[in-house]
UniProtKB/TrEMBL annotation:
Stored InterPro entries: Ig-like_fold (IPR013783)
Protein name, per record: Uncharacterized protein
Keywords: Signal
Segment forming the signal sequence: 1-19
PROSITE patterns: PROKAR_LIPOPROTEIN
Keyword Signal: yes
């Protein structure tokens, strides 16, 4: 009997580990490509070396539409022409102010021959980090970053302070972030988002798929040089919990944006977390 129990427990552990590996996605890239450290799930294919041209039609400024062209080339300078559709899009672009107080997640249009275009609006001046996330055909997830200086009124940077309580409300949805253990660098962590109606406190069961999953979690470190894009363990759940499995690459303060959809409206909940050694 004991033996049988042991076998069952082992099997369950194996299934849990398998599920973890299969569904978690982990990306990290340093701005310095020479020190690039890319990590991924076991199914990951070889990452292709790419070059990226970032070109604004005019030097970027506030309160206007800035036309951005992003061109993806291989390491010989030849445009990469085919991209996989990843969570409904060929490219995901994160635009974040360097202090992480401003955040946008937008989707450039693919024009062919490696060229993507997108209008970008900045609500303030200063330094912004642009992060393009895409998959060249037959290759693995690829992340490219670019820092731009935006002309216009530039407020003093907002300091990044870890949240004391991990409960946020957006669009009438109350979102609690639960983390089982103390956050430690290089240790697998489960981020568990719990959803309640802010008024009635009833569990929310009617989240809608957003870009092919119940939600998306984007994580940046304090200076926006380390980027993680995490997808849920189970993409099909509708609430009242959504679990995201990730690993923070180093100690420090991180900002986490959870992006979800309900009643045809996207809502974003930001959390600031401290990760210890
Ligand atoms: Cu996206």
């Amino acid at each position: 009997m004991k033996k049988l129990l042991f076998v069952v427990v082992s099997l369950l552990t194996m299934i849990a580990l398998f599920a973890c590996n299969k569904d978690s996605e982990y990306k990290q890239i340093k701005q310095d490509m020479a020190n690039m450290n890319h990590n991924g799930s076991s199914k990951e294919k070889q990452q292709v070396a790419v070059q990226t041209d970032w070109n604004f039609k005019q030097s970027p400024q506030t309160n206007t539409t800035n036309q951005l062209t992003i061109t993806i080339k291989d390491n010989k300078g030849k445009p990469i022409s085919e991209f996989e559709v990843n969570h409904e899009k060929k490219m995901h672009l994160i635009v974040a102010s360097k202090d992480l107080s401003k955040y946008q997640h937008i989707h450039p249009t693919y024009k062919g021959k490696g060229v993507f275009t997108v209008p970008v609006t900045f609500t303030q001046g200063g330094s912004f980090q642009l992060i393009a996330d895409f998959v060249p055909k037959g290759q693995s997830d690829t992340v490219q970053m670019h820092t731009v200086s935006v002309k216009g009124n530039t407020p003093a940077p907002v300091s990044l302070t870890p949240d004391k309580t991990l409960v946020k409300t957006a669009n009438g949805n109350q979102v609690s972030l639960k983390i089982d253990t103390q956050l430690k660098a290089n240790q697998e962590t489960m981020l568990n988002f719990h959803f309640e109606d802010a008024k009635t406190k009833q569990p929310i069961q009617d989240l809608q798929p957003y870009l092919g999953a119940v939600g998306h979690v984007v994580i940046l470190n304090q200076d926006a040089t380390k980027y993680l894009h995490v997808h849920p363990m189970d993409e099909r759940v509708k609430g009242s919990n959504a679990m995201f499995h990730t690993t923070f690459p180093s100690p420090g303060v991180y900002k986490v944006w959870g992006e979800f959809q309900r009643s045809n409206k996207i809502f974003i909940v930001p959390f600031v977390l401290e990760v210890s050694k």
